[in-house]
């Protein structure tokens, strides 16, 4: 249309998927417009997700580590918590990163438009009344917290964004959902002084990970939190003057209990339908996900979709890689999203990290695996940190010794899993890990040793 802003490539959504796609396409010579409805670039991840949660988790870890040292001859006394100071620290971290993105966009001459975009045709969107015409587009609109329909409207009921605001430290907190996001926020509030109850519908916390990998985390938080209710549903929440009365339905929980705040962390839903994909002719499934092929193309060859809006796992590093593929495919490169594994990490204490095949999946799919598991009680570094309750587990093809999956629980598991991810991507076998000299004494040795356990050269653990 005449007078409309023109873009070679229009990117809707400035999260990790969207900004990656925008920057890559600009580097490849395209004139790029990036639209986001938020005040700053970075999407959920930088503004209300990965980064602020990790800043708060760092604070929690320092508090807990300091308390743990009491058993090793070093006492600090009770922490003096200044919520304004902690919020300022978090905002500073987020601000540096989102500001950095704005500078990177300027340097690449990526035009950033603020507002909500909706398709008005196969080559146009409307953003707050303004039309932008595009040759190609990338939908990177991410996801939002799923809202349980029976929860009443009450300011004491928060989603993850509200929890990250850290308005106060409630005396009694219920975390609804024992997945990664719920457990990370539980950790923050517990360290700051809340009494925490976690309620999870399935029979284990972090249902995607193997039970043995989650066990050290479960043991530690079970000893610290008021209650962890498994196989339990919340059936209602009634606001009252004394707090939020929550009704439970489960085998061993109370029938109900009162909390000062409830954090609902029961999953996220994709922002697929909100862009009015139908106006462009882009297909979206009934859950709001936009189906794509391996080049991240939707049913229309000139419109791509990436990140949380295209499906699980809803993780920033997946969105980033998909963003790069989409930009390169849009620029005519021969490329495809071809990751063998996408690692997942819970940044709890201890951390839980896994990648590739899990034992549960192997059993369900009838895939033969043999494992090599190395208990951290036999790691000098873990013992010297006062943290012997960890495990490094590798799953191998019994015939070829190929690494098929990995699960690690313990401090720094999120960093350690990277070696296993590389091993799986490279098609490494057990010997590749066991013959690699790992520095001593490090937690990384447990990967080589897990391979040796599989080979039978380390026994008697
Ligand atoms: P998003 O980051 O969701 O960005 C989408 C952007 O599009 C948003 O800015 C949104 O406002 C904008 N938008 C949506 N619709 C429109 C529209 N119509 N017009 C204009 N703009 C629009 N992942 C990890 O890998 N590691 C972690 O540690 C981690 N921690 C997390 C902690 C929390 C509390 C939460 C909530 C999530 C966490 N995640 C983590 C998940 C991670 O944040 C997401 O996977 C990631 O942000 C997805 O990126 P994306 O580019 O798909 O979209």
UniProtKB/TrEMBL annotation:
Domain of life, source organism: Bacteria
Extra facts: The active site is a redox-active disulfide bond.
Lineage: Bacteria, Pseudomonadati, Pseudomonadota, Alphaproteobacteria, Rhodobacterales
CC cofactor: (R)-lipoate; FAD
Catalysed conversion reaction: N(6)-[(R)-dihydrolipoyl]-L-lysyl-[protein] + NAD(+) = N(6)-[(R)-lipoyl]-L-lysyl-[protein] + NADH + H(+)
EC main group: oxidoreductase
Coiled coil: none
EC number, UniProt record: 1.8.1.4
Span within the parent record: 88 to 548 of 548
The record's free-text note on cofactor binding: Binds 1 FAD per subunit.
Name of this protein: Dihydrolipoyl dehydrogenase
UniProt KW Translocase keyword: no
Family, as annotated: Belongs to the class-I pyridine nucleotide-disulfide oxidoreductase family.
Keywords, sorted A to Z: Disulfide bond, FAD, Flavoprotein, Lipoyl, NAD, Oxidoreductase, Redox-active center
Organism: Ruixingdingia sedimenti
């Amino acid at each position: 249309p005449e007078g409309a802003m023109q873009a070679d490539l229009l990117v809707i959504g400035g999260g990790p998927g969207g900004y990656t796609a925008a920057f890559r396409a600009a580097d490849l010579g395209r004139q790029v417009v990036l639209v986001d409805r938020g005040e700053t670039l970075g999407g959920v991840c930088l503004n209300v997700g990965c980064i602020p949660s990790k800043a708060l988790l760092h604070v929690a870890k320092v508090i807990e580590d300091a308390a743990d040292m009491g058993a090793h001859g070093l006492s600090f006394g009770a922490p003096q918590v200044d919520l304004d100071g902690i919020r300022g620290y978090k905002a500073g971290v987020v601000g540096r990163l989102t500001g950095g993105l704005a500078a990177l966009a300027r340097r690449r001459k990526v035009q950033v438009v603020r507002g909500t975009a909706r398709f008005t045709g196969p080559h146009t969107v409307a953003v707050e009344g303004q039309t932008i015409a595009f040759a190609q587009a990338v939908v990177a609109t991410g996801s939002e917290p799923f809202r349980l329909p029976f929860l009443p409207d009450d300011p004491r009921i928060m989603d993850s964004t509200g929890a990250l605001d850290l308005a106060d430290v409630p005396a009694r907190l219920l975390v609804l959902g024992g997945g990664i996001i719920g457990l990370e926020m539980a950790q923050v509030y517990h360290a700051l002084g809340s009494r925490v109850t976690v309620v999870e519908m399935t029979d284990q916390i972090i249902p995607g990970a193997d039970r043995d990998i989650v066990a050290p985390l479960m043991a530690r938080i079970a000893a610290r939190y008021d209650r962890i209710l498994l196989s339990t549903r919340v059936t209602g929440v009634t606001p009252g003057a004394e707090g939020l009365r929550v009704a439970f339905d489960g085998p061993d929980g109370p029938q109900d209990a009162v909390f000062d705040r409830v954090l609902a962390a029961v999953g996220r839903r994709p922002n697929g339908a909100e862009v009015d994909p139908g106006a462009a002719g882009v297909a979206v499934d009934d859950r709001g996900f936009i189906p794509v092929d391996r080049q991240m193309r939707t049913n229309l060859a000139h419109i791509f979709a990436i990140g949380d809006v295209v499906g699980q796992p809803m993780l920033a590093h997946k969105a980033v890689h998909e963003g790069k593929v989409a930009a390169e495919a849009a620029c005519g490169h021969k490329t495809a999203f071809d990751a063998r594994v996408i690692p997942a990490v819970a940044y709890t204490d201890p951390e839980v990290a896994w990648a590739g095949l899990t034992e549960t999946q192997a059993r369900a799919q009838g895939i033969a695996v043999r494992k090599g598991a190395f208990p951290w009680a036999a790691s000098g570094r873990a013992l010297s940190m006062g943290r012997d309750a960890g495990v490094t587990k590798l799953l191998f093809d019994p015939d070829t010794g190929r690494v098929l999956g990995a699960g690690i629980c313990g401090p720094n598991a999120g960093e350690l899993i990277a070696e296993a991810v590389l091993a799986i991507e490279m098609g490494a076998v057990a010997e590749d890990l066991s013959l690699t000299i790992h520095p001593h004494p490090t937690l990384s040795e447990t990967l080589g040793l897990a391979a040796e356990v599989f080979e039978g050269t380390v026994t008697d653990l």
